[in-house]
Write a structure and sequence with these properties.
The protein has eight helices and three strands, in the order H-H-H-H-E-E-E-H-H-H-H. It has 260 residues and is mainly α. It has one domain. It has a three-stranded antiparallel β-sheet. Keywords: Cell membrane, Glycosyltransferase, Membrane, Transferase, Transmembrane, Transmembrane helix.
Length: 260
């Protein structure tokens, strides 16, 4: 089993949880900006506005949904995802950016920052799971149980590898977003079945599922599947070039009538 661990003491009154969350925001912003520039989504100012606005919308969604749902904490990662989606779509349209390409940039950046966010959860032990004797269980006070923040933190590097590979092989916008939406949705859906159900550790459930699981089933996974099934639509110049190069059916030559 994994022993109980805490974030080491920091000088100047710094708090480990807040430091890791701050690093998460900074890393997410930097990677999003770099990726958006690589995709040539817009001017430097427009890309900065997209990055700042999307992260701010994610934080607002996490805090708002966390307060609304209640449970073990005041922040909701599912709410953060919803906030990021709404903010991204609105900002991309306002800034006249292609929405799917902008979504790919934000999706690409997400797991890089998420490593630090979930590390904060792991050190805070604020996502307790069910009591267990598994070697992956953490020695919580009162009994060993799964730590869902720790388990998700351990899986996040795989999401980083996934978005990097998907970005290299994607043939059209939306693929990276679709891949991560399905992968992270399935990961979170499965992990929440290990969430604690005893006493003060229990989160609210609706028909046996947590709020995050309903978001995964109703939004994240279906949207990801739709994005993966979409077909690329060629731009007008590409469509004209394709039409010009396609073989045409033979026609009989046109003859001009001879004069009588």
């Amino acid at each position: 089993m994994i022993p109980w661990f805490k974030f080491p003491a920091l000088p100047f009154g710094l708090h480990g949880f807040g430091l890791l969350l701050t690093l998460s925001v900074i890393v997410n912003h930097l990677v999003l900006v770099r990726r958006a520039r690589a995709l040539e989504l817009g001017s430097k100012g427009a890309i900065e506005a997209l990055a700042i606005g999307t992260v701010a919308a994610a934080i607002g969604g996490a805090y708002g949904v966390g307060k609304l749902v209640g449970g073990g904490g005041t922040l909701s990662s599912a709410g953060g995802c919803l906030g990021a989606i709404v903010g991204l779509v609105g900002l991309a349209r306002a800034l006249r950016m292609p929405v799917l390409a902008a979504a790919d940039a934000a999706t690409y950046a997400f797991p890089f920052g998420w490593i630090f966010a979930r590390a904060a959860c792991a050190f805070a032990h604020d996502h307790p799971g069910r009591l267990s004797s598994s070697w992956l269980a953490v020695q919580y006070p009162g009994g060993a149980r799964f730590d869902l923040g720790l388990l998700e933190w351990m899986a996040t590097p795989l999401l980083v590898v996934l978005v990097v590979l998907a970005s290299r092989r994607a043939s059209r916008p939306g693929v990276v977003t679709g891949v991560l939406a399905v992968a992270y949705g399935a990961l979170r859906l499965g992990l929440d079945f290990l969430r604690a159900e005893d006493g003060r550790f229990s989160d609210p459930r609706w028909h046996g599922l947590t709020a995050a699981q309903w978001v995964c089933l109703g939004v994240m996974i279906p949207v990801g599947i739709v994005l993966l099934l979409l077909k690329a639509t060629p731009s007008p110049p590409a469509a004209l070039a394709q039409a010009a190069s396609s073989p045409r059916s033979p026609r009989s030559p046109t003859r001009t009538p001879s004069a009588p």
